[in-house]
Amino acid sequence: MIKYCISIVSFLILISCGGKDEAIFRDATPTKTGISFVNTLTETDDLNILDYLYFYNGGGVAVGDINNDGLPDIYFSGNQVKNKLFLNKGNLKFEDITEKAKVAGNSSWNTGAVMGDVNGDGYLDIYVCAVVGINGFVGFNELYINNGDQTFTESAAKYGLDFDTFSSSAAFLDFDLDGDLDIYLLNHAIHTQESFGKSSLRYKRNYQTGDVLLRNDGNTFVDVSEEAGVFGGINGYGLGIAVSDFNQDGYPDIFVGNDFHEDDYYYLNNGDGTFTESGRDYFGHTSRFSMGNDVADINHDGWPDMISLDMLAEDEAVLKSSEGDDDIQIQKLRIQQYGYNYQFTRNMLYVNQQNTPYLETALLSGVASTDWSWSALFADYNQDGEQDLFISNGIPKRPNNLDFIKFASSDKIQVKISKTKLVDQDALNLMPNGEVHNYIFKGNKNLNFEDKSGLWISNDNTVSGATAIGDLDNDGDIDLVVNNLNSTAFVYENTIDKKANYLKIKFNYEKPNSFGIGAKAILYNNGKMQYKELYTVRGFQASSEPIIHFGLGDNKKVDSLKIIWPNRTYQTVKNIEINQTITVSPDKAKLFNYNTLKSSSKPLFNKVEDNLGINFTHKEDNYIDFNRQKLIPYQVSDRGPATAIGDLNNDGLDDIFFGGSKHTASRVYLNSNENFSETEIEAFKNEDTKEDVVALIADFNNDKKNDVFIGSGGADFYNKMTPLLDSYFIQKDSSFVASSLPDYFENASVAITNNFDKDGDLDVFIGNNAVSNDFGNIPNSYILKNDAGKFSLVENESLQQAGMITDAIWDDFNNDGETDLIVVGEWMSPKFFKNENGKLIEEKVCNEELNGLWQSIVAFDIDNDGDKDYLLGNWGTNTKFKASEKFPMKMYYSDFDMNGSTETIVCTEKNGKYYPLLNFDDLSAQIVSIKKKFLSYQDFAGKPIESVFDKKALNKASVLLVHELHSGYLKNDNNKFSFVPFKNELQVSPITSFLRYDFEQDGKEEVLAAGNYFGVTPFHGRFDSFPGALIKSEEDIILGNKLGLKLSGFSARHLNIITHNDKTYLLVTINNDSAQVYELPN
Fold this sequence. Notes:
By secondary structure, the chain is mainly β. It contains 20 helices and 76 strands. It has a 5-stranded mixed β-sheet. A hairpin with a 7-residue loop joins strand 3 and strand 4. It starts with a helix and ends with a strand.
């Protein structure tokens, strides 16, 4: 897959018994194996990467036993070389039988190669894809029918499979469950004027580029794409395909990874021969340049998870010299005007959430950046019972290099390119070498993967593409075969042998699907489930051996094995010996109940469709913080809206106040016996210039009528602009009257009440988050002392300059009977202020360095030991931010360009050095001197912060730190606190709100957590997949999607309990979207 200037211009294993890491794979050399296939590419003036953007995609590879002797054989397809078939002779010895088998191929340019039993005779056939009709490429997709004697007959035309299109690969599946194998043909577009445009292009079918769904009607395949709901547009750049029963209803579904601007496709099988494309319902964002993909159950819940590959580099020099994500304005154009979904340039790891939106965890799982990645293959390579991951990598030249793009995008060069070949060689020479090592990751628990590249496999830099797996030497472990460009194909021989136990399964299913494609196996041992599904087309342009393999570690037995057949029946096998290959045939199979795979959690929250009349929708204004301060790490203007609950009309019922955004007035909903109804309060309408971030409803003047306090912010207004002043309204008679507050001009983030000085009226702590147009400067936060409804500021310097505060609570943390104050915020640690006779004095209660990007706090005894712990919502670890106590994230704050305005430079550590997170274009757009210092992207790339700015400039800067990004809790041990992170499912997004309540109505309180956040540039992606969580104890945390909440894809700001007609409800206030109401058990 190639990304070069046209797209820019056009679309403005083993832990051994001793616990020591050992090499798991050894390179089986051609001398040993006899496999000498080399996919040699020859570039010419008329055919190179500038002429065909997929010139470097490589050929295919298929592994399968073509002669049914029990030994898997290997077929390679080549681009400019003939295809080859190698017969397995045993002991990793292979014989080239291409000429005898008559499978060398006749097309100019072959791509994917896959094996499947097309005619149902029990022998594997070979289907080879080709690119035809461009660059002089001739031929067609070829189907080699196995004659059963190590020879094949080309029969594509006979079966209706002789497509002369731009084919990438094909996948075998029985989508209609009629017993035979159908085919999904994956095609790809090329860049033309027609391929760029709105997403609706996908609905107009194009023969050469559109994908094709082919139903097997016995002797021929019939195109049913249109009637089945499969897209076939000229903008479909299909490179990766995965088949799996993603929603566990017994019917195979399809995921298609599309390169460039087109969205990935997620086809859910309706069970009637049709599919519904449902990508946006399940994926908040996807890979931008989607390549290969693969499916496996990585968390032992019996549901298929998936990885989609992209091309984000790990190496700093490559990263900073390569094209990255869109500018934020271009992304808005793609989304709002062209109709595409959110896409970001990195690998994505999707964790299945059982018919609700996926968690996306690649960054926190450690698999987001593996460079120019083609194929991903999950397998238990070290046989410890966890899924590991192999990723093939490399490209001969990098067409996404920014110096090349700059050269090729100039008007002068564009004219030359269109008229002559003279600049081709200059352009090619500007593309740097892209050979990199392949990656392999050890799968661990808690969604973590550990990079074992260079340990489990050799660390040689290559250009590796299509990859397949199989047990090539029949020793029980999984080997790898890789089709390389311009070098001999790799055979990685797995040497785990008997160091860990295994079970290997083959199927003898009913003809014509005798290999059991689509069968599932669930293995149980020692209380742990392993789930596998047999689809051979995996990774990229490849198919693997049709087996299922389970690693068992040191387990000596299998408790039971459940086989679910493609016809939705099942049988259970017991008393199975380990370390063997078993063949399973249908035997007294019964209908399988797929509900048994679903979560046992019962819905606790029932969404109220009419929202009790609360039709509030928050709408952010169009202000973008990055337009004013280009280098800030995230926005601060999108922290609203305010929400407050209380009786506003003195009828004893709780009403609702929703704050407004800039130039949009706040809204009030009054409670009644029928429903909530909106009413206008004149005093609030006059405040519509302000951005209401927090609000309080309370009786501040002790007249037994509730008043309203509103904290303003939004970061748009600055200095001493009036809209930065907070507001205070006293209720008189049946109306509200504005009352005065001390003048302080801040961006509010939290307001909480407490009679901290015990004088009988409610005082207010108002915490502020940032200084407008001066991010990194510490705002002032205050105690507002209440004297009979009149507020004054309390002098307290340490609290006033506590930090960039986001949340706070009043709570007696030291059990002395006094209510203390605890504040959390960004670029700071949680701070505890002890109340000593009405004076708040900071007290250190933690010995750890805990500066974080803290968002929320609540008191809760999570360990049930009788004292209060404190739950803390942080940024999470599914982020490009990186922080630890040893290597904290740093933010340099200074006027670097000496123009009177400050800048912030965020740096993270890599290999012991600190690098700016942002790239050359971002930094130099704000600090022009960088352009003078570095004359090219290559000059800048790979430079640590000390090489970007001189020592004097860095010493002059203030440095703010972050040590901890995990959300978690401060565990209380005799009033000394230590931090404990939550499990990884709670680290996918910032947690912005907590609510403590007895949700289950069992006499015990739980805490509901919610979050997600979108105020970052495309470089950071989008924190959208947290579904909320109900926290009951340290070990009992249930994700909200299992309890009926629909919070994925929404940025929740506030959680509140409301009552209506003696029933209790949960109110969720969402930034830039509609509020949600859920009924609770009553």
